[in-house]
């Protein structure tokens, strides 16, 4: 009997576009919608993307173009925050987490 093997690579047809900007995530989604005629929006079911490796949630925008059968995703790569330390002069520290560590310049 002949065994056939399916490859996942045959089904995952995607392009990754990195955007370098200092805009807030909602402003970037607005300008992408305006210029590229998209309809990116935050979904009620999944407003953020959870990364179990870093245990952080990243802003997530999505739009499915049913006419062209294309799904657009806009995900923030950089997540900034502050962590409360014990009482003192320097009681907080700023932390930065990246979804894709190799692309730290992509914001």
From TrEMBL:
It comes from Paraprevotella clara YIT 11840. InterPro entries: IPExxxVDY_fam (IPR047690). This is Uncharacterized protein.
